[in-house]
Amino acid sequence: MSNPSSTEAPALTPRFCFNEKLLQDFLRLSRSTIDDSITQNLNALFTPSQQGFDPSSTAVRQTDSSGRKVIDPEACQGFKENVLFSSWQTRSDVLNYCAGVATSPDPEDPDLILRETESARDRERVVNERLDPYSARFFPKEARTESLANLIRNQRVVEDIIRSRSWGLVNERCGGSSLSWEEALNDWRKKHQR
Asked: Name one Pfam family in it (predicted).
């Protein structure tokens, strides 16, 4: 089973958030150690040696997944509480912090003066679209807060997809839960005062 400490939250600073490669690498690593390998993590919880070997199990080829044994409920609950939910919460904390950074003013924006200069030049430009229909095109450079906000929006969509998939597999292997992943995570947060 994956170690939850391998996905500990990095030091949350605006510098971390604005380094989009580092932010994406953290999210990718966290997802790969827990969610992308969810089947392996769940298989590690199943210990067939407790039931003993049944020689008749090899007489017939097992092709359907309904023949899978349900994993011990205590092991499943421990995995969900200690590994899965804590990993999801860490990623949520990082995304929420960086979303706050993206919506805050950025006094240290290195491209602020360049964007202001380009904007002033654009206001002074005279455009005759009859002579050059493409001359009206102006693509101002995006502020790094806007770029970060777009990245956070995209990563939240990815999180939703990954968590739905992981929760579906957990329910399939651990016995179905009537809760959605959002409800289960919120219940876990209430228990852990997060």
From this structure: MIX23
Q: Is pLDDT of 64 > 60?
A: no
The DSSP-derived string for 98-137 is: HHHHHHS--TT-TTHHHHHHHHHHHHH----TTT-TTTT-
List of residues 6+ apart from 60 with CB closer than 8 A: none
Q: What is the mean pLDDT of residues 13-40?
A: 91
Three-state DSSP at 46 gives: coil
H-assigned helices in the chain: 14-18, 20-34, 38-45, 73-79, 85-103, 112-124, 144-174, 181-191
The larger pLDDT score, comparing residue 68 to residue 6, is at: 68
Distance of CA 53 to the CA centre of its chain: 39
Distances (CA, A) of 59 to 52, 55, 56, 62, 76: 16, 8, 5, 9, 30
The two structure tokens encoding residue 59: 């007489």
Are the C-beta atoms of 21 and 148 separated by less than 8 Å? no
Q: 6: pLDDT confidence band, cut at 50, 70 and 90? A: very low
Give 11's DSSP letter: P
Residue 120 pLDDT greater than 90, yes or no: no
138-148 burial, b for 16+ CB within 10 Å, e for fewer?
A: eeeeeebbeeb
